[in-house]
TrEMBL record:
It comes from Nitrospira defluvii. It catalyses: GDP-alpha-D-mannose = GDP-4-dehydro-alpha-D-rhamnose + H2O. SUPFAM superfamilies: NAD(P)-binding Rossmann-fold domains. Belongs to the NAD(P)-dependent epimerase/dehydratase family. GDP-mannose 4,6-dehydratase subfamily. It comes from the Bacteria. Catalyzes the conversion of GDP-D-mannose to GDP-4-dehydro-6-deoxy-D-mannose. Residues 4-315 form the NAD(P)-binding domain. GO terms for molecular function: GDP-mannose 4,6-dehydratase activity. NCBIfam families: gmd. Its EC number is 4.2.1.47. The lineage of its organism: Bacteria, Pseudomonadati, Nitrospirota, Nitrospiria, Nitrospirales. This is GDP-mannose 4,6-dehydratase. Its cofactor is NADP(+). Pfam families: GDP_Man_Dehyd. Signal peptide: none annotated.
Amino acid sequence: MKALITGITGQDGSYLAEFLLAKGYDVYGIIRRSSSFNTARIDGIYQDPHTLGAKLHLVYGDLNDASSLNRIIRTVRPDEIYNLGAQSHVRVSFDIPEYTAEITALGTVRLLEAIRESGLKPRFYQASSSEMFGKVQEVPQRETTPFYPRSPYGAAKVYAHWITVNYREAYGLFACSGILFNHESPRRGETFVTRKITKAAARIKLGLQRELFLGNLDAKRDWGYAGDYVEAMWRMLQQDQPGDYVVATGETHTVREFLDVAFGHLDIDWQRHVQIDPRYYRPTEVDLLIGDASKARRQLGWKPTVDFHQLAVMMVDADLEAERLKLQGTASKGN
Ligand code: NDP
Ligand code: GDR
């Protein structure tokens, strides 16, 4: 089996690639040109392309470049495609709304068109988001809850979601959307709130930092573990029929509670270090997310294995270790 992943260098792409390689897949990942290395998350599974029997293949392309997508699909001829590539930062989407729509929304239809034009019938996974629910319409949120996005990112994801549904209905494509609620890990991007907190807690513990500037501490999120969530993506594409699924833990917590667990784990009082900087507020906020994943549980046999407390502790421990290693590296350079 061959799988093609957009966004392989991101948090989810790296976990999904590991998961699929372990299942024996040939994994093709689209990477984009960058002036600095952007493959740190997949360094652990990198295989030299000159090695006989290499199973991981990286190809240059961009969701903004239709011809690259056409070429990759034609030449790779994947059995499964996972569209994880996106401008994925909600706050940043207010600063670059047009670019966000270009990649997160139009990138999806470019990919779907490339599939259609190829004449191939790969199974397709779209990375939809709980941000599509936005302003609270129903609690907990499920597959039938109406969308009310509250950011350019959320609006772009709603387009990508519906165009995926449309290609399923119009062209019979086996296309699934996973409506995933927030999921985190030690590989989470450092500007998302959980990782920002766990990294700062570790650095404060080691005396490398004193203050942490944050925005809205009252927002509530349903936080799960990324390693669990990529398995749900794969399970969706193994069903007899395509469909859309909410993937969530069913628990919600405030940013404040995440601070309590993360800093508490290191015996630090976060109130002495955290300051509010309004620049991290969003013009419109999503106040409360809590998902009902009973369809995924029932039909995919999927359930989360890591709870909120374990997740925060796992991330703090990983950051503490990483910061210690950096410190040792700096010290040995000085010798
Ligand atoms: P990340 O931000 O960690 O990764 C995004 C990936 O998209 C990176 O590999 C990035 O490449 C790539 N990318 C960005 N722009 C382009 C482009 N123009 N062409 C090709 N690739 C591009 O996101 P996550 O791994 O956290 O999320 C994966 C997907 O799931 C995203 O679509 C996100 O919106 C969605 N999602 C995430 C959730 C979460 O809680 N993590 C929840 C619900 C949905 P590069 O490394 O070069 O920047
Ligand atoms: P989110 O994640 O917007 O839910 O999108 P993020 O971690 O950025 O924010 C979560 C909540 O924390 C509040 N917050 C802050 N956020 C950031 N980034 N930085 C801060 O300093 C800060 N202070 C408070 C935010 O206001 C928000 O309420 C993530 C992304 O992965 C999306 O791609 C994905 O679709 C959704 O999760 C589900």
